[in-house]
Amino acid sequence: MGKGKKKKADEKVEVAELADEMVADGVHPLGGFSDALRVEKGFVLEDIDAASTPAFPGDKIAGKAALQSAEEELADLLERLWAESTAGSKRALLLVVQGMDTSGKGGIMRHVVSVNPEGVKATGFKAPTKEELSHDFLWRIEKALPQAGQLGVFDRSQYEDVLVVRVHDLVPEEVWSKRYAQINEFERRVIASGTKIVKVMTHISKDEQKTRLMERLERPDKYYKFNPGDVDERLRWRDYMEAYQAVFDKTSTVGAPWHVVPSDRKWYARLAVQQLLLEALRDMDLQWPKADFDVEAEKKRLAAS
Ligand code: AMP
Ligand code: MG
């Protein structure tokens, strides 16, 4: 085993042991992530330190252990959400993840929301196809919404239509400038139909992005993640930050506020998004559906069968 691999394996053991201890000691739940990360009036993206770890005082090992030790609760709550829908509930949860290239969106998909594949509907949004372009920008978003009982996850979203589209003038300003209000209206409808929305920006620093892109160029097993266009986007960093600031100013609503997750530390970003989901699900007060049959009578019937 190489040195790097050995270190990783040792870390894994350490994390697993600590996670077991946390579960045994009942260290969970953590809390306060939503309060610490929510975008409120007056929020300034530039003031956020992308390497900080709000609401979590521990280090990387503790953070990874906390993530592991909370997986069971997340799976349990998602199962309750699903169970509720089988009894007619219309409720669902939608996680929207936006962020610059390499900010860890894919890692969140792999490490946070893979706990319950049946109840999860994940969608990655790329540059729109010809067909998608022939419809309103919200057409493809609407189709990807979670069904009752599901957790929907968006890797990029309706917000690309006021981010990349704004930065590159892909449509005239009078078109994209109306989209903030259209998005707010759309989200109000989604919420009214029973879907809770959690919006997250994974926020990395420009320096950290350079390191991560360079890593992709230094490792043949990472070339596939690199796109020469990523460097061009990087050159527009300031424009993107301005476009994100506008998104926060215009679309962080009471019903669907944004959360900015400092993401220079991957372990923190994953933990924070998991905790935001947990806090949202706990708020929903999910109950196992009552039996719609006579349990005792069924027990008797089964025993005699
Ligand atoms: P990735 O997430 O790295 O696979 O890249 C997906 C690409 O699709 C990014 O460069 C996005 O900016 C681009 N993209 C996503 N949605 C849109 C959109 N509505 N209009 C234009 N480009 C988009
Ligand atoms: Mg990419």
Descriptive tags:
305 residues; alpha/beta; Rossmann fold; 5 strands; 51% helix; globular; binds adenosine monophosphate; binds magnesium ion
Describe the 3D structure.
Helices cover 51% and strands 10% of the residues. The protein contains 15 helices and 5 strands. The mean pLDDT is 95. It is of the alpha/beta class. It has a single domain (8-285), classed as Rossmann fold (3-Layer(aba) Sandwich). It has a 5-stranded parallel sheet with strand order 2-3-1-4-5, with helices on both faces.
CA-atom Rg in angstroms: 21 Å
Number of separate helices: 15
The run of helices and strands is: HHHHEHEHHEHHHEHHHEHH
CATH architecture: 3-Layer(aba) Sandwich
Query: Quick one: overall form?
Result: globular
> Whole-number average pLDDT?
95
Strands ordered across the widest β-sheet: 2-3-1-4-5
Number of domains: 1
CATH superfamily: P-loop containing nucleotide triphosphate hydrolases
Decide which structural class fits the backbone.
alpha/beta
Question: What are the low-pLDDT stretches, counting only 5+ consecutive residues below 50?
Answer: none
CATH topology: Rossmann fold
Bound molecules: adenosine monophosphate, magnesium ion
Largest sheet: 5 strands, parallel
Helix content: 40-55%
Distance linking N and C termini: 57 Å
Summarize the structure.
By secondary structure, the chain is α/β, with parallel strands linked by helices. It has helices at 3-25, 33-37, 60-69, 71-86, 105-111, 130-133, 139-143, 164-167, 173-176, 179-192, 206-218, 228-235, 237-251, 266-283, 295-303, and strands spanning 92-99, 120-124, 151-155, 195-203, 258-262.
